[in-house]
From TrEMBL:
<dbReference type="InterPro" id="IPR018197">
    <property type="entry name" value="Glycerate_kinase_RE-like"/>
</dbReference>
<dbReference type="GO" id="GO:0031388">
    <property type="term" value="P:organic acid phosphorylation"/>
</dbReference>
<dbReference type="GO" id="GO:0008887">
    <property type="term" value="F:glycerate kinase activity"/>
</dbReference>
<dbReference type="InterPro" id="IPR018193">
    <property type="entry name" value="Glyc_kinase_flavodox-like_fold"/>
</dbReference>
<comment type="similarity">
    <text>Belongs to the glycerate kinase type-1 family.</text>
</comment>
<dbReference type="InterPro" id="IPR004381">
    <property type="entry name" value="Glycerate_kinase"/>
</dbReference>
<protein>
    <submittedName>
        <fullName>Predicted protein</fullName>
    </submittedName>
</protein>
<dbReference type="Pfam" id="PF02595">
    <property type="entry name" value="Gly_kinase"/>
</dbReference>
<keyword id="KW-0418">Kinase</keyword>
<dbReference type="InterPro" id="IPR036129">
    <property type="entry name" value="Glycerate_kinase_sf"/>
</dbReference>
<keyword id="KW-0808">Transferase</keyword>
Amino acid sequence: MKRLQIACCFDKFKDSLKARECGKAIMQGLGQVNYDFVNIPLSDGGEGFLEAIKKDQEGNYQLDHVQVRRPVRNSDLMITVPYFRKQVENNFLYVLEMATVCGLELLKMEERNPFNTSTFGLGVVIGNILKQHGKKDHIHILMGIGGSCTNDAGLGCLKCLGCVDIELNGKLMSSGEVFWGGDLINISDILINTEGLPFQYENLTIDIACDVNNPFIGERGAVHTFSKQKGATEEQREILEKGMNQVAKLIQRHQNIDISNLSGAGAAGGIAGGFYSILNGQVNLKKGIEMIGAINNLEQVISQSDIVFTGEGSYDHQSEGGKVVSWIAQLCKKYSKPCIILCGQKKIETLPNENCLAFDLISKFKLEECMSNTFECLAQLAKEHENDILKKRQGILN
């Protein structure tokens, strides 16, 4: 009997299982008697971005660290932030995950308030990287920005890097002063400083992996879509939105760039829009899954597989909008491969295309067991539906 090639291309199951462990669960569930596996953990740009991108076809990245302060006001505690680097001749590639610097999971529940958080620490990390290099070096930074605790339009980071000088109520902030989300409402001007650190590197490129397509402001913007989950009250959301509108107007005035409705600009509390407009020409906004897919030769892996597994904690309408599952499903359709979606909970009945099957843990296991023993539950789910999966493959072949 021919050994079938199986590709495991999962996103994380949030709060319960990392993407790589999801793939291992499928291996355990199906066993390795009749199957060969390739396990490629994925991320749409949020938590798990480092894990998903650290291995490519040319070898592993070197792991480095930098110390920064926690991203919340009135905290002097330091955290260790990991990042990956790789050098090929005079080309330097870095991979950062914003969630490790100013992620929501770094804060206690009572600390979560986007008025009191800042992307300043991310500026420290980027600055640390740039200062290691000569001004002519080719530096390429890949940055996943999902899972943040911030809503400061990236100004905390950009100010730390010296790219902007900010006036609050007509008064210029001092050079070492941290810009917090709560300062947005008091912005009277944003002055672009062309002597800022990133501007000194003519061969610097920053690719931002956006996990959403939300604009900078408005009903689908950064504030109204994401700040509630970061701890903002209804009153605070209105104040933050006014501040973000002011930022958009000032950027339009000084940079002649309208980020108000720019797709993806609202990602991570507006940092995507802030970076794109102020570091104009050095920054690209990209889909995280496409970025990771290119590095891991994901399309080639799927084209050479017999069965493809994917999934995430919750399969819902967001899964259809450029997330990991929808991207894998598209590739499976392109190469006529069965796409098996295993998830914690299936909240919609529609499937991305006719090549897909979807099964969820909650239909078989109690919620508490799904959360506490996700690995074993996922392994059992794969084994239970093995015959369904093989029939699906045969149906596509016929």
